[in-house]
Amino acid sequence: MRKLKYHVATSVDGFIAHEDDTYGAFMQPRLIQDSEHVTDFVASLATYSAALMGRRTYEVGLKEGVTDPYTNLETYVFSRTMKESPNPRVKLVSEDAVGVVRRLKAQEGGDIYLSGGGAFAGLLFAEGLVDEVLLKMNPLILGAGIPLVSSLRQVVDLELKSTKVYGNGVVLLRYAVLPRPKA
């Protein structure tokens, strides 16, 4: 079974984007220029065979003319409001998101990259579909924005598997999602 990994940049206070869905604070030259964490992230994409994202995450690139953000991966955008995909390679999922993700996880292949989306991530955590969390904790406090996860109704327990501290202050935290206790 393929693993679903929520691999996301976050601020120290748990935000993955500004309130307007932009990422300006994360794009500061001190955080991205000649940064080993960017190189490591790009290399990690080779371990994935599919990418999942919600509409709001997808639209960030779309506003810049990027219709296929992960050309080497099967890409799925989950949206109840988009009517069609602007790129034939990008699959639009408007119904049964949980069922689609379950079917993808059951297929053969590399791991699945959950590419941001606080609300979408919350849905997948609630359904017990996320296997790992990789947080690129940036040395920033935003004070407000899009939360790492939203709308959770129960605690998700994590087990720390590894850490890596980069010279620019970014810390990569890798967690396994622990199974939920049986009721």
UniProtKB/TrEMBL annotation:
Pfam families: RibD_C (PF01872). GO terms for molecular function: 5-amino-6-(5-phosphoribosylamino)uracil reductase activity. Residues 3-172 form the Bacterial bifunctional deaminase-reductase C-terminal domain. InterPro entries: DHFR-like_dom_sf, RibDG_C, Riboflavin_Biosynth_HTPR. One of its GO terms (biological process) is riboflavin biosynthetic process. PANTHER family: 2,5-DIAMINO-6-RIBOSYLAMINO-4(3H)-PYRIMIDINONE 5'-PHOSPHATE REDUCTASE (PTHR38011:SF11), DIHYDROFOLATE REDUCTASE FAMILY PROTEIN (AFU_ORTHOLOGUE AFUA_8G06820) (PTHR38011). This is Deaminase reductase. It comes from Corallococcus macrosporus DSM 14697.
